[in-house]
Amino acid sequence: MAITVFESPFFGGLLCGLSKFYLKTIGWRRVGHLPDIPRCVMIAAPHTSNWDAPIALAMVFAFRFKAHWLVKHTAFRWPFRGVLRWLGAIPIDRTKSTDVVTQMVEELRKRAELVLLLAPEGTRKRVTRWKTGFYHIACGAGVPLVLAFLDYARKEGGLGPVFQPTGNLKADMAEILGFYATVTGKHPERMGVVEIPRS
Question: What is the pTM of this model?
Answer without folding.
Answer: 0.83
